[in-house]
Prior knowledge:
Radius of gyration: 20 Å
Number of strands: 9
Largest sheet: 6 strands, parallel
Strand content: 5-15%
Helix content: 40-55%
Number of helices: 14
Structural class: alpha/beta
Order of helices and strands: EHEHEHEHHEHEEHEHEHHHHHH
Distance between the termini: 66 Å
Shape: globular
Amino acid sequence: MTSIGFIGLGNMGAPMAANLLKAGHQVTGFDVVADSVKALVENGGSAAGSAPEAAGAGEIVITMLPAGQQVRQVYLGPDGVIARARKGALLIDCSTIDVATARMVASAAAEAGFLMLDAPVSGGVIGAEAATLTFMVGGEPEAFARGEPVLRAMGKTIVHGGPAGNGQSAKICNNMILGASMIAVCEGFALAEKLGLSAQILFDIASKSTSQCWAMTSYCPVPGPVPAAPSNRGYAPGFTASMMLKDLRLAQQAAGATAAATPLGAAAANLYQLFVDSGSGGLDFSGIMQFLRRPEPKR
């Protein structure tokens, strides 16, 4: 059993912490939403009254936060995780943030004598609940060896990508590919509809042909072919369009910083921006199907 301080018990953090409890670990958690902390306690965890208190409660400290700004706020400063964590604690940030922040916080942790991992995840809320997440991990080999057993309580695939920041690099590249793939799948189904070809027939062909991809076979954006997909639940989110837009923006930020050519990634970011601006940011990212198939305005 490992004692773990967990900061950030939102849609992803809550089920991740619950799986740590199921694995027999001792979890002390904090979230700005009191009901989230209450739910952790009901599952057998302990409540921390603040982020600094949670930071000092474990041999390992795990954070799952919205963006780089929150990561900097929680980790740095006189009451941050780095200042309040136990001596020798391993720090693991599972947030999806910009690479520069991940490397800056990791450097600050190293200067204070802590090992740290950036370990963003793929798999959405469904994967978090089922403990089937993929962790993309950056950090020193010693830190990875120590953190991997705990990550395995929350995920199925754990990949060490190299030094600090490489976990974030892998995550934003992965999600840029996913965002662009989802739009292409949606366009294909929208065109098939206009041509009078049923969604099921297109799925039966394409899912076994050269256009096969995860966005189609696991997360099909039209109702019917994949019963577990959000499209069959009114696009109730597993991974919201707003979160996809955040990741696509991070990818474009990285592309700009490195002069990488990502025209499809840029187009995907623009389309998701329009989708979110239309008021659909809370829908699953596959709900962009609705945006792409909307009727043309009458002239």
